[in-house]
Model the fold of this input.
Amino acid sequence: MPSDIQGHIEEKHREPVGHEIAVDETEQRRGWGLKLIKTLMDEVEFERVDEGTSLRMTKYLRKSA
Done:
């Protein structure tokens, strides 16, 4: 049985993503997806790639009894 689930997404764009999430949701309606990802996943890594951003997510699975 695997011990984790990993996802990897790459997006081409001109503006940096991931580190500009508003703390107060009433300030900004954008960025909720990244906030959810950071809340639900155990590890989230952002990396700049040639023409955009790479996002790697990891969720560790609990062992069943």
The chain has a mean pLDDT of 78. The first strand starts at residue 4 and ends at 12. The radius of gyration is 14 Å. Strands lie at 4-12, 43-49, 52-60.
